[in-house]
Automatic annotation (TrEMBL):
Its cofactor is Ni(2+). Pfam families: ARMT1-like_dom. This is Damage-control phosphatase ARMT1-like metal-binding domain-containing protein. Residues 110-445 form the Damage-control phosphatase ARMT1-like metal-binding domain. It comes from the Eukaryota. The lineage of its organism: Eukaryota, Viridiplantae, Chlorophyta, Pseudoscourfieldiophyceae, Pseudoscourfieldiales. InterPro entries: ARMT-1-like_metal-bd_sf, ARMT1-like_metal-bd, At2g17340_3_helix_bundle.
Length: 459
């Protein structure tokens, strides 16, 4: 059996600092290096921490148990390296993110070698840990930090954030122009359909799916040529006009006409308001953001919309990673985006001032999501609000993007407290996920599931 540790920038090659999440009785504290939190991480109070598993069957666990699947994921990560190269140069030239290409090259050499080793049938981590997809992604981000690469995608995130801020006012105006009486045939308010379409369109902007972005930006039909950038890579650099055009094209593609692959928009609408007498309306929501730029814009628009639907006593927490990972938005970037957006949006500004909309770090440092390891700030907010909104069927968890909702947590509803709803929002951007879900690349997922797990009374 081939046993190896991830390559290390240090002379010792010590990997003892890599601590995978360990399931233990509540309260659970997980120490993990690299994040911005001073203390340990805690489980989301809305899950059964003893039973929770972040893995999505056929994805995270398959990487650990099936050498062929692990090799396929390793190759997918190798295929993302050209995007890393382009973005590292871009961020170094823009002098943002603390990026130097020299440090990046050292990281890439070690990272590429490690992934090639991982493709071998008898490979296994020296630590003995199960090499789930979340583990693989965390090791990659640890290497980025260890080699001092900085935030490789900082320039890309900055520029796409500026484009999203330019688009934001017109989308707010369009949302505000929707009549409360405008409903789809199955009773979904037009404003909610639009907000969800913006979320799905924004989720297209994924550094791991640069070819897909390129196809939307450059193609008007299925048979077209994708432009090459100056480094010969397809669609890895889009100017601001193309980013805006890409979002508009993606939004048109994501309209609900004919329905989405998973389509629980009608169920979501009824749960937000309970106007049909189906039970208590949702009063608290925790939204886990994914990518920077248009995707973050979509999440802000969704939070804005559902707060308006839920009523004056409702609250939404928008959360983002504590540390950089690919082009995922960080908490600092989320704060900066919302601070700019509120100047053009009196609705969001009022929500922030009243405390109905709050921003919190998630404690995460990965493109996937471990609900068993959230920040102290988020844990404290949920715990405090549970003292006010004690009924779990008035709580909603929103998981945005493939990494947080498909590649991990696809069955999170099996581990949340009884009554808590879990909304999965994603555009499918890889063949691996499409095959698993019996779907096609670019299919959209709007899925709502409600937890049935009754927790033991530990008081």
């Amino acid at each position: 059996m081939s046993v190896s540790s991830p390559p290390s920038a240090s002379a010792s090659g010590d990997s003892s600092s890599l601590v995978a999440p360990v399931v233990a009785p509540t309260p659970r504290v997980v120490a993990r290096g690299g994040g911005d939190d001073d203390g340990g991480l805690l489980p989301l109070p809305l899950i059964d921490a003893e039973k929770y598993r972040h893995v999505s069957p056929g994805v995270c666990d398959a990487c650990a148990s099936d050498a062929n699947i692990r090799a396929a994921w390793a190759q997918l990560l190798i295929d993302q390296i050209p995007a890393h190269q382009v973005q590292a140069r871009r961020s170094e030239q823009a002098n943002v993110g603390g990026v130097t290409y020299e440090a990046y090259e050292r990281f890439e050499q070690a990272y590429h070698s490690w992934l090639e080793d991982m493709k071998q049938p008898d490979w296994h981590p020296a630590s003995g840990e199960a090499p789930t997809l979340l583990w693989m992604v965390r090791e990659k981000e640890r290497l980025v930090r260890e080699y001092g690469c900085g935030d490789v995608f900082a320039a890309m995130k900055d520029e796409e954030g500026q484009v999203a801020l330019a688009l934001y006012p017109e989308l707010c105006a369009e949302l505000d122009g929707k009549s409360e009486l405008a409903l789809s045939p199955d009773g979904v308010p037009a404003v909610l359909e639009l907000a969800l379409a913006c979320c799905l369109a924004g989720n297209l902007f994924d550094a791991g799916a640069a070819w897909l972005i390129a196809s939307e930006a450059n193609c008007v039909d299925d048979e077209c040529e994708v432009d090459l950038d100056s480094d010969g890579e397809p669609g890895l650099l889009l100017n601001n006009a193309k980013v805006a055009d890409t979002f508009r094209a993606a939004r048109a593609f994501c309209e609900r006409d004919g329905g989405w692959h998973y389509d629980d928009a009608a169920v979501l609408s009824s749960r937000l308001t309970a106007k049909d007498g189906s039970g208590r309306p949702i009063r608290r929501a925790v939204v886990f953001c994914d990518n920077a730029g248009a995707d973050t814009m979509g999440m802000v628009l969704l939070a804005r919309t559902i707060l308006q639907m839920m009523g004056d006593d409702a609250m939404v927490a928008l959360t983002a990673n504590s540390s950089p990972a690919l082009n995922d938005v960080t908490f600092a970037e989320l704060e900066a985006f919302v601070d700019e957006a509120r100047h053009a949006d009196a609705v969001v500004d009022d929500m922030l001032q009243s405390g109905r909309l709050v921003l919190l770090p998630s404690g995460q440092d990965s493109t996937l999501l471990d609900l068993g390891s959230i920040s102290n700030e988020l844990h404290a907010w949920v715990t405090s609000e549970l003292d006010i909104v004690t009924s779990h069927d008035e709580w909603l968890i929103v998981l945005d993007g493939m990494g947080r909702s498909l590649e991990s947590n696809f069955q999170a509803y099996e581990y949340v407290t009884q009554g808590t709803s879990v909304l999965t929002l994603a555009m499918i951007k890889s063949e691996i996920n499409a095959r698993r879900l019996e779907a096609n690349v670019k299919d959209c997922v709007v899925r709502l599931r409600t937890g049935e797990r009754q927790l033991k009374n530990t008081s």
